Amino acid sequence: MSTTPTGQRREADRPRGLDGHRGRGVGARTAADEARSSYYGVPPIHKPHWKWLVVVYFFLGGIAGASYVIAAVSHLVGPKEDQPIARAGRYLSLAALVPCPILLVLDLHRPRRFLNMLRVVKFRSPMSVGTWGLLLFSGFSGLSALIQAAEDGLLGRGRAVGVMSRLPARAVAVAGTPFGFFVAGYTGVLLAATAVPLWAKNARFMGPLFLSSAFSTAASAITLVLSLRRRTPGEALHRLERLERAAMVAELGLLAASRARLGPTAKPVVEGRLGGLLRYGTVGGGLLVPLAIQTASAIAGRPPSRPISMLASALVLTGGFVLRHAVVAGGRASADDPEATFAYARRGLLETPPR
Length: 355
Fold this sequence. Notes:
Blueprint: H1 31-37, H2 52-77, H3 83-97, H4 99-108, H5 111-116, H6 126-151, H7 159-165, H8 169-192, H9 197-200, H10 203-227, H11 234-262, H12 267-270, H13 272-300, H14 306-335, H15 338-351
């Protein structure tokens, strides 16, 4: 083999990698090399078809689950002044839940596909577990709302209504609370269980992020409903706002942790239109501004005016919806990026312990 005067291999003698290039060998190929040469820029995975139907389902499902939990906790351990929170939370949970199966069926295009998922239970399938969890939670949410409606006299009179009003509401709340937590956060776990780099690489924080956002939006929705009733005790609203602040702070922290963990993979949700929506719609308008309003009122020692409180709640709800839209749309863009896919796959291989 010929050498240069310094004893090094000539360029012509260097081994070729799988991409046909000399000099670095197979082991030194980068994700960018593979993205350019192995698939000629064609995405190696299929992007999810999920669009607005699934975004709305994620948003309403989170509110339904978290509203139920808030109502249950207010009823079980809260003082008498918190009963308006329990009442509003039960009705809101059912109202947000009712469209969810419809949205799923519309997204699947065929109702039979949704029914087929109820034929068996696959504990290793996030979709199957999520479908059954949603079904079981629907029973608890509907039953709690019916008990509340019977107590409020909204169902008229009759033997069936009398039986309904005598059902153990506390026991139903205790049994349904775990399913409320599940529905509030499982959608983040569902996304993380895919091969989409933006979701899979952030698997550690996806579930907690969606759960904290569910509680912030649910607390804001209940606050918005109660703000329309002038007889709601101020102490109840104050406790609800404290929960809302805690959820928003947790959401901000999880967003920051997700950004740090994703690194360059976060490009679809930090640049361009989606980046602006997430930055100004969720972080700015949906979290920082409501936090500033509530913090200022806490320092002043008096609650914000009713219009300001309603504005803050509306901002949080808008930010929660924008968050889910950005995550879903960003995932579709991430799946179209071969470099992100290969970088995540290579990282997964390096982190997999040898057998």
